[in-house]
Amino acid sequence: MKPTDMITQVGSVIASVMFAWAMFKQYCPYNLQEFMDKYSKKAFTFFYPYIQISFNEFTGDRFMRSEAYSAIENYLGSRSSTQAKRLKADVVKSSQSIILSMDDYEEVDDEFQGVKLKWAAGKHISKTQSVSFYPVTDEKKYYRLTFHRRHRQLILGDYLNHVLKEGNEIKVRNRQRKLYTNSGSYWRHVLFQHPASFESLAMEAERKQEIMDDLVVFSTAEEFYARIGRAWKRGYLLFGPPGTGKSTMIAAMANLLNYDIYDLELTSVKDNTQLRKLLIDTTSRSIIVIEDIDCSLDLTGQRKKKEEGEGDEKDPKLKLPKEEAETKQSQVTLSGILNFVDGLWSACKGERLIVFTTNFVEKLDPALIRKGRMDKHIELSYCSFEAFQILAKNYLKLESHHLFARIQELLGETKMTPAEVAEHLMPKTISGDAMVCLESLIGGLEKAKEDAILKAEEEVKESARLKAEEEAKEKEKDKDKEKEKAKAEEEAAKEKDSSKAEVNENGFCENENAELISKEKK
Ligand SMILES: Nc1ncnc2c1ncn2[C@@H]1O[C@H](COP(=O)(O)OP(=O)(O)OP(=O)(O)O)[C@@H](O)[C@H]1O
Ligand SMILES: [Mg+2]
């Protein structure tokens, strides 16, 4: 006889005894009942060598679905589909896959390190007291695990940990990921269905692989982070001109790691307290994104304040665009952001990535992007030929073409963002002729090159004009100086002449005086 069948048989014997006991209890005096209760339990445990554990679907007062119950449900999913006769099906990932679990009162066997166990799904049904036209029943589902008592240590320790771990992993694999956005101090979410992947991301293969490795190593390094005593988090700074794939890369990261995205709009966060609340509400296995961080915060504020010598330098106000700041009265500060990056991560369990994006990395405060906060700095730049090849493969299914050589040449001579290249490669005709797209791209690149040359010429002209203006101003200044000098000399000469005349006049008077004196003497 199989051990599992034995469990079933013993179970049914016990059930009969319990029934007989219930009948007996109705007609038996209370004292005798108590006595019998005590000893029947002892007898039961003596003869029944199995241990049973129930995992109820809902626990506690708050009617929260038990995490253990849903982990067990996921864990038993694959076993149920091969063993149970009646199954329940649920659709996940927006109708892309079906999850099976065993129906009520079904049983499945499991084995762990050579030990056999039995799982059964059951439910308690009770009538509720509420007054209603329709009869309302209250179902309380549970899973019951049965195993021999000699394996107690193993099952209560390693086996249950193994079930919870594997169940949670399956849950993460099956879950529909979400994109959260903040509205006031709450997160709202929609299903995250961005199709971006690292494979379709136009970027040099080597750099792409390096970033992917970094992400995967991070996501599997729980023990490492615990051992070295660091919070399990990593910061990424993505910078580069508009349309170079920063947002696309974030979506690709989420898809690679199966993480949720929390897109934090800082300008709608009132103050640091609200920011803290939002961040504490984020879940594990998520990417917290602050896009265009240079626009959300005035990161030069700190330095300006220091120069002006006003305010507390540790707590500079992050200046939002003026009107916005006035209307929203946001008081999120740089120190608030820094605290969030450091504080939250050290406090919250579970892995989290934080990603900042910016078009102007040089504008950011060094404190914000120093290593340890933003561990990895990734520059996304203009389209290289290698990146173009990926786009051509994605958009046109082309590995090579005779026009590629010309495109390579032009990409070496001029700058175009992957977004612009992608726009040229979008199908232009119903038949989706690749040639038309490539020619459009060549036209675009040639125009960009001409524009760049014209711009450079204009810049040269402009700088020459500015230089000429400068020189003219200098000359004018020199002339003015000369004029002033000449004027000064003239005035000096005049002064000299006038003082001579004075001397002469004085001389004349003296002569007159001398004449008068001599006349008087005579
Ligand atoms: N490296 C890339 N690989 C594939 N597609 C790209 C890449 N860069 C841009 N694109 C395409 O261009 C569009 C715009 O790119 P994206 O929004 O990622 O740019 P961004 O760098 O975030 O720009 P911004 O700084 O303005 O936010 C995307 O929808 C995508 O189709
Ligand atoms: Mg973007």
Automatic annotation (TrEMBL):
Biased composition (Basic and acidic residues): 314-326, 462-503
PROSITE patterns assigned to the protein according to its UniProt record, in alphabetical order: AAA (PS00674)
InterPro entries: AAA+_ATPase (IPR003593), AAA_N_dom (IPR025753), At3g28540-like_C (IPR058017), ATPase_AAA_core (IPR003959), ATPase_AAA_CS (IPR003960), Mitochondrial_chaperone_BCS1 (IPR050747), P-loop_NTPase (IPR027417)
Keyword ATP-binding appears in the UniProt entry: yes
Chain residue ranges for the region called Disordered: 302-326, 462-522
One GO biological process term: response to stress
Molecular function GO terms recorded: ATP binding; ATP hydrolysis activity
Recorded catalytic activity of this chain's protein: ATP + H2O = ADP + phosphate + H(+)
Required cofactor(s): Mg(2+)
UniProtKB keywords: ATP-binding, Hydrolase, Magnesium, Nucleotide-binding
Pfam families with a match to the protein in the record: AAA (PF00004), AAA_assoc (PF14363), AAA_lid_At3g28540 (PF25568)
Residues of the AAA+ ATPase domain: 232-384
Organism: Salix brachista
Transmembrane segments: none
Protein name: AAA+ ATPase domain-containing protein
Family: Belongs to the AAA ATPase family. BCS1 subfamily.
